[in-house]
Amino acid sequence: MASGGDPKWQKDAADQNFDYMFKLLIIGNSSVGKTSFLFRYADDSFTSAFVSTVGIDFKVKTVFRHDKRVKLQIWDTAGQERYRTITTAYYRGAMGFILMYDVTNEDSFNSVQDWVTQIKTYSWDNAQVILVGNKCDMEDQRVISFERGRQLADQLGVEFFETSAKENVNVKAVFERLVDIICDKMSESLDADPTLVGGAQKGQRLTDQPQGTPNANCNC
Amino acid sequence: MDFQNRNNTANKFVCPSDRQLALRAKLRAGWSSSKTSEPLRPEEQEAIISVIRRNEEIEIAERQRVGRLVERVEKIKQHAVERGPNCCRLCGDTFGLLRPHRIICEDCRQSVCTKCSVDINIRYHTSERTREIWLCRICSETREMWKKSGAWFFKGLPRYDTPRSASANATPAPTPTPGGMASMAGDTRSEHSCHGTPTRTARVKKLTIRVNDSSSSSGPSEPEDEVDGGGGSGRVGGAKGSAVGRLQREDSFRLRAYGSIRSFIDGGERKLSNSFFFGRQQSHRLSECTDYDSVSLSNGSAVAQIRRESSSLRRGSVSSSWSISESSGSGNSGTHSQSQSQVQSQSQSQYAQSQQQHCRDPLLGWLEIAISYRESFHSLDCTMVRARDLPAMDASGLTDPYCKLNIITPEALTKYTRWQRTRTVHKTRNPEFNETLQFVGVEPEELGNSLLYVALFDDDKYGHDFLGAAKVCLSTVHSTSQYRISVPLGVEDQYSNAAEIAQEWPNGKILISLCYNTKRRALVVNVKQCINLMAMDNNGSSDPFVKLQLKPDAHKNKKHKTSVKWRTLNPIYNEEFYFEASPHDLNKEMLIVTVWDKDLGKSNDFLGSVQLGAQSKGERLQQWHDCIRLPDHFHEKWHCLAPDNPAH
After folding, report:
1. Contact between residue B287 and residue B279 where contact means Cβ atoms under 8 Å apart
2. Which of A125, B268, B397, B519 has its CA 20 to 30 A from that of A148?
3. How confident is the model over B300-312, as pLDDT tens digits?
4. Other residues' Cβ atoms within 10 Å of the Cβ of residue B557
5. Rounded Cα–Cα distance for residues A116 and A158 (Å)
6. Which chain A residues are Cβ-neighbours of B453 within 8 angstroms?
7. Among B573, B638, B580, which residue's Cα sits nearest to residue B610?
8. pLDDT band, residue B139 (cuts 50/70/90)
9. Is there a domain that residue A152 lies in?
10. Distance between CA atoms of B224 and B216, rounded to whole angstroms?
């Protein structure tokens, strides 16, 4: 929320000089570190104080990837259930999801499947997902091993990273990987299915209407 | 982990333990069944609203960006020459041995030359191998646009604002204007015909279920019990329904869906701008919808609710294709309870009306008519109320429309020889006529099998161009009440031609052929012939000749005139004249054609005039544009001669 008046944010948000715009969403249980993760990536800052996110928030960051400027609008969602009505509304715009759990919290790991179901229900079917186990710096309190995380990711068919927003481990890598996956998906979708584009030219605009009404049919 | 493997996984988001989840739901464990919830506090609402506002700014910028991308492609398309299979689609160069090499575009399968195409390397679907393909400039730009706009992901272009519509058009509809994007609109026709196919219906079905979390709040909220077998989606949907219900009961802040959050903020005034919400439906394939069929909520109700929401949100300003669900919605509502289906049908009919009013955009626009019959006078009163979205006729995208009316008898003849006409409403594509025309002598029994025929024309002193025509069945008109109807305008037919012929053009017509010669860099004007000229001399004939002048003339060409054809009203000239000009200059210039009667010993009599150029309208403008757009070809057209002399 505090980012609203941040001049850097405004600069990034207003910047129209980019090629692609990807919307990403970070989801996961409350207090797994979604906001910290985003702040680390977008502002390179970290605070250990816990402030629960109210509903939704987002940050904008433009990255340079494969000779293309990609503008990322990264949505940070509240993990608490009371905001779920709001947060799920944003699933359908997202091209990529960062599904996060806390390696020191068994519950957050067990909820991963619930979150996958949420994605399945509310997002576009070709949305890309990365599973992230956060707080990997807290080795002494770890309850979910790297291996368990990796196995779950394999089961779900998604990629897996262990990260630490505090120590800045793998944070950038996660975003870069997700951008890469989406980029791959993009070229794949058009190259594999050129009819998509061709079909679109023939009136994919949602506003195009079938012609004629009951009245029009009355030629007597 | 290995990316290759991921690709081979048939369905990577299959949750491995849907059954477990369902069981867990029964045990009321896990967050989806947790019962702790409280309403949003005012400061929380504030915070959320501020985020949504920030997002709105980004979305507006994004819509404009996509609009610019779309316009860029449209511009390239407009410049395409399309001269036939032996010429490059884009630049019009002929293929041959020494000429440019012919290339077939991978996407559109049309021939283009090497200059107008690009080769790209694409990867085969599952392997690392690549192959080279050629794309014409239009298709490669379109691909690029699909990537940049995110359309590749949503399988359709998201909503966009064209720079043009933002500045020029008064109507806030986000649709491309029919005039401005004629090529696109032309292409859509074929698509229209498939409306109502199973695929479409299926799409709607899926959509219904997908969004029912946002609309089911008015129904009873049902926890997990009923959905054991329904899979993950149904379970979550149910839980969400209850959550929404709580939110609504306890708080006035109605967080129904993304869209309604916005409408709450904007007081409902701004149109729903969630492009993704609308973008969703088109991607759903038939195969997908089957999983969702088992969900207990009736499709019809959800559709109706969505409609209610969306129609109230949109305030009629966004046009979208929700109407495709009309048939499927009403067909499936039978399973629902009586009271609810009443509400549905009401809202459906309301919606159908608003659809008619706002959403469908046929190519030629709409006409709203009110008809009443007064039995005592045997008179049919037809009120032309207004027309909407008429085709643009001049360079600034405006029209000067008027209506001509007649009644068509069962024998398919026009009942009256004289067509009634309204006055002209100037400079608008959305005229408010509000004019009542009366047909006297219409017998009550005639009503049952006659048609009211309305043709709209563009008023111009050099010829009235056809805009659109509508037929209304009079069998529904009763003497008791006024019959009000909004009809789409169709294309020309025999009656509109009759109406056009009925127009009086006492000055006759002229056939002119235009060609821009690129070698000589000159406009070639061929004056072919005139017919039905006025007789000016005592012998009942005239001695006509034609004067040509280019104005304002950048190259200081001299005026030209044809030879005089003695004693005829239908002279044939076939004379060519050259006006030196660059294509660029032609965009500003006007060819003034005047026809005179040669008199010896006294001043010549004026017979008629016509003006062709970028400032002219309708067919005259079209001929001018064709001539510039497709040079080295003759473009021939008949024009009416107007009685006023441009020199005066």
Report:
1. no
2. A125
3. 444 444 444 444 4
4. 18
5. 11
6. none
7. B638
8. confident
9. yes
10. 15
Q: Is B159 on the interface with A (CB under 8 A)?
A: yes
CB contact under 8 Å between A56 and B51, yes or no, is: yes
Supply φ then ψ for residue B618, to 5 degrees: 50, -130
Report yes or no on A65 lying in a domain: yes
Structural domain contains residue A216:
no
Torsional class of A71: left (φ above 0), alpha (ψ -120 to 50), beta (otherwise)? beta
Per-residue model confidence as pLDDT tens digits over A77-127: 988 888 888 888 888 889 999 999 999 988 899 989 888 888 888 888 888
Q: What are phi and psi of A117, to 5 degrees?
A: -60, -40
Flag whether A99 is in a domain: yes
Alpha-carbon separation of residue A90 from A94, A100, B115, B276 (angstroms):
7, 17, 44, 9
Q: Is the pLDDT of residue B550 over 70?
A: yes
Q: What is the DSSP letter of B270?
A: S
Residues B204, B201: Cα–Cα separation, whole Å: 5
Three-state DSSP class for residue B609: strand
pLDDT digits (tens, 9 = 90+) for B560-592: 999 999 888 889 999 999 988 888 888 888 899
Q: Cα torsion for B56, B62, B68, B71, to the nearest 10°?
A: -90
The number of folded domains in chain A is 1
pLDDT the model gives residue B347: 47
Main-chain dihedrals φ then ψ at residue B449, nearest 5 degrees: -125, 20
A52: closest chain B residue by CA? B44
Which tens digit of pLDDT belongs to each residue from B193-238?
333 333 333 333 333 333 333 333 343 444 433 333 334 343 444 4
CA dist., res. B223 & res. B262, Å (int): 28
Out of A150, A184, A210, whose CB is closest to B324? A210
Minimal C-alpha gap between B464 and chain A (Å) = 25
Q: Which domain holds residue A57?
A: 17-188
The tens digit of pLDDT for each residue in A163-185 reads: 998 888 889 999 999 999 988 88
Q: Is B440 exposed, middle or buried (0-12, 13-18, 19+ CB in 10 A)?
A: exposed
CA angle B459, B509, B636 (to 5 degrees): 90
Q: Tell me which of A121, A160, A181 to substitute to probe the interface with B (most B C-beta atoms closer than 10 Å).
A: A121
The CA angle B260-B261-B267, to the nearest 5 degrees, is 80
What is the Cα–Cα distance from A102 to B580, expressed in whole angstroms?
Answer: 78
CATH of the domain at A72: 3.40.50.300
Tokens of B529: 């012939």
